[in-house]
Design goal:
The protein is α/β, with parallel strands linked by helices. It folds into 2 domains: 30 residues; 154 residues, Rossmann fold. It contains 8 helices and 6 strands. The chain has a 6-stranded parallel beta sheet with strand order 3-2-4-5-1-6, with helices on both faces. The chain is globular. The protein binds adenosine-5'-triphosphate (ATP) and magnesium ion. The site of magnesium ion has 5 residues, from helix 2.
Length: 201
């Protein structure tokens, strides 16, 4: 008896929930390219973007990836995703700014990299463009923020873009459709664990 009552209550609750969810789904009718920003100090920004690359490739979409900052070409994501047909993968960094210690060189590298990204943002054949670690080029002032925002705002209407990196600017967040801020609760690095292949690279 007790169970029957519980089951009936559960059914009624789920029916109410279903009608709310169905109404929300029916109200979401727009279809357009989205600008997604994954920021914050926690781990999971780039891996989230690369998970979406896998998802898009599964749908047969064409994907462009620009990795700013990083100079290493031995990451698992590049080894696997970079060789899939349908992906154009560009490693455009020169290493971290504290590695190069050369501001002029960093600016030149950033601007060369941005040219590659700009071409993708003007090409409707790319269904998804990932701009990994783009935020740093903006916060260091290596790129002009307004021209970056302008290129993002005027990209092909059905093109999705994911921008990753810490410290996304207010203007970028304002322009974005979806923003996730990943919090840094804990990271194994601080317990002395070095970067692990398959997890960190
Ligand atoms: P991931 O590529 O693992 O998703 P991320 O893109 O969120 O990380 P980045 O700032 O790009 O973070 O850092 C890249 C590298 O630094 C990765 O090896 C990642 O594990 C490590 N890392 C990320 N967040 C932290 C953190 N809060 N403390 C220490 N190391 C971190
Ligand atoms: Mg990253």
């Amino acid at each position: 008896m007790q169970d029957e009552l519980k089951n009936a209550r559960h059914r009624a609750r789920m029916a109410r929930k279903k009608s709310i969810i169905d109404a929300a789904i029916a109200a979401a009718t727009d279809e357009r390219g989205l600008l997604i920003v994954i920021t914050g100090n926690g781990k999971g920004k780039s891996t989230s973007a690369f998970g979406t690359v896998a998802r898009a490739l599964g749908h047969g979409m064409k994907v462009g990836v620009c990795q700013f900052i990083k100079s290493r070409t031995d990451t698992g994501e590049e080894a696997f995703l970079g060789r899939q047909s349908g992906v154009d993968w560009h490693v455009l960094g020169d290493g971290f700014t504290w590695d190069t210690q050369n501001r002029e060189q960093d600016i030149a590298t950033a601007q060369r990299g941005w040219e590659v990204a700009r071409v993708m943002l003007a090409d409707p054949s790319y269904h998804l463009v990932v701009l990994d670690e783009l935020t740093y080029l903006l916060s260091y002032g290596y790129l002009d923020g307004d021209s970056v925002l302008d290129a993002l705002a005027h990209r092909p209407p059905m093109q999705h873009v994911i921008v990753t990196g810490r410290g996304a600017s207010d203007a970028l967040i304002e322009l974005a459709d979806t923003v996730s801020v990943i919090a840094d609760e804990k990271h194994a690095y601080r317990a002395g664990v070095k970067a692990q292949p398959g997890i960190d690279l």
